[in-house]
Amino acid sequence: MLEELAGTNEKNVASPLNCYIVSEGSLLAISCRPHHFGDFVLLTGDAAHAMVPFYGQGMNCGFEDCLVLSESLDACNDDIRE
């Protein structure tokens, strides 16, 4: 996996769009439009894996999730309906 990420730079990393504060504190709401597909949802990293956050594995899981998603999309020629 390290080889896959070796050429990654800030241009390859998505950033949240339409992020705004909904209340005082550290809570944020992120609009996913237009970055969703119908009624389907994809969870990655901490959101997709049942583990305690203080093990520090969420980011690693997120990287692996992105790699597996990319390989899956390649396998179906980016047709996510498959």
Based on the model shown, name its key terms.
FAD, alpha+beta, globular, 7% strand, kynurenine 3-monooxygenase activity, 82 residues
Short description:
The chain contains two helices and two strands, in the order αββα. It has 82 residues and is α+β, with helices and mostly antiparallel strands.
> Please, how many helices?
2
Pattern of helices and strands: HEEH
Structural class: alpha+beta
Please state how the strands of the largest beta sheet are arranged side by side: 1-2
Number of domain units: 1
Query: Which segments are poorly predicted (pLDDT under 50) over 5 or more consecutive residues?
Result: none
Q: State the end-to-end distance.
A: 25 Å
Q: What summary fits the major beta sheet?
A: 2 strands, antiparallel
Strand content: 5-15%
- The percentage helix is 25-40%
* Form type: globular
What's the rounded overall pLDDT mean? 67
Gyration radius, rounded: 15 Å
Q: Total strand count, please?
A: 2
Pfam families: FAD_binding_3
InterPro entries: FAD-bd, FAD/NAD-bd_sf
GO molecular function: FAD binding; kynurenine 3-monooxygenase activity
Cofactor: FAD
How are the elements arranged and paired?
Layout (H helix, E strand, L loop, with lengths): L1 H4 L13 E3 L6 E3 L27 H18 L7
Characterise this structure.
By secondary structure, this protein is an alpha+beta fold. The chain has one domain. Helices cover 27% and strands 7% of the residues. The protein has helices at residues 2-5, 58-75; strands at 19-21, 28-30. The protein has a two-stranded antiparallel ribbon. Strand 1 and strand 2 (28-30) form a beta hairpin. It is globular, with a radius of gyration of 15 Å. The two termini are 25 Å apart. The model has no long low-confidence stretch (mean pLDDT 67).
